[in-house]
Specification:
By secondary structure, the protein is mainly alpha-helical. It has 8 helices and 4 strands, in the order E-E-H-H-H-H-E-E-H-H-H-H.
Length: 179
């Protein structure tokens, strides 16, 4: 899905697309690297981090969902987290407008967020948004991507370098180009 606010693409957790179609997108991204082709397809950095095996953190949410990131940061900084009246469940709308409620941990609807467990709540929320809710879609994409560029050499890349290979540099130095 393309997000007009962030100008980034992200996986659709409500997708009916077959895994093979998602794998094909990964193959195309890998072929772009293999053939030295720059694509105008921008993913948040967490996609490249996950391709490199890095687990997501709260800061990774900022680029993709800045409003949720700000809310979670506020929860971590507030004096009394219990005043937020949260439990270990989240409610969101799927792509058809249906309201979905998910427990972040077992029996989460009955566990209040407090100062003692708010870091766990934030970690579980981030994990849900960046891993669990798009697990099938991301794994298919990753499998396709690694079919083309996987191997020992791939392990040498950092996430930032992977993004540069696919999207090119977003900073253009015209003075340097002129000289």
């Amino acid at each position: 899905l393309y997000d007009d606010d962030t100008r980034l693409f992200w996986f659709n957790g409500d997708s009916f697309e077959a895994n093979v179609q998602l794998e094909l997108v990964g193959i195309l991204m890998g072929l772009a690297i293999y053939n030295d082709v720059i694509l105008d397809v921008h993913f948040p950095m967490i996609v490249y981090k996950r391709l490199c095996g890095v687990e997501p953190e709260l800061e990774d949410l900022f680029e993709l969902k800045p409003t949720i990131h700000k809310s979670l940061m506020s929860l971590l900084q507030v004096e009394d987290a219990s005043q937020a009246y949260l439990t270990f469940e989240i409610t969101y709308e799927n792509m058809w407008g249906e309201t979905i409620t998910k427990e972040l941990i077992e029996n989460g609807a009955n566990i209040d967020v407090t100062n003692e467990n708010r870091h766990q709540f934030v970690d579980e929320y981030v994990k849900f948004l960046l891993i669990t809710s798009v697990k099938r879609e991301f794994e298919a994409f990753k499998a396709g991507f690694l079919k083309v560029v996987g191997g020992e050499a791939f392990d040498l890349f950092r996430p930032e370098e992977l993004e540069l290979l696919i999207c090119g540099s977003s900073v253009l130095d015209f003075k340097e180009l002129q000289s």
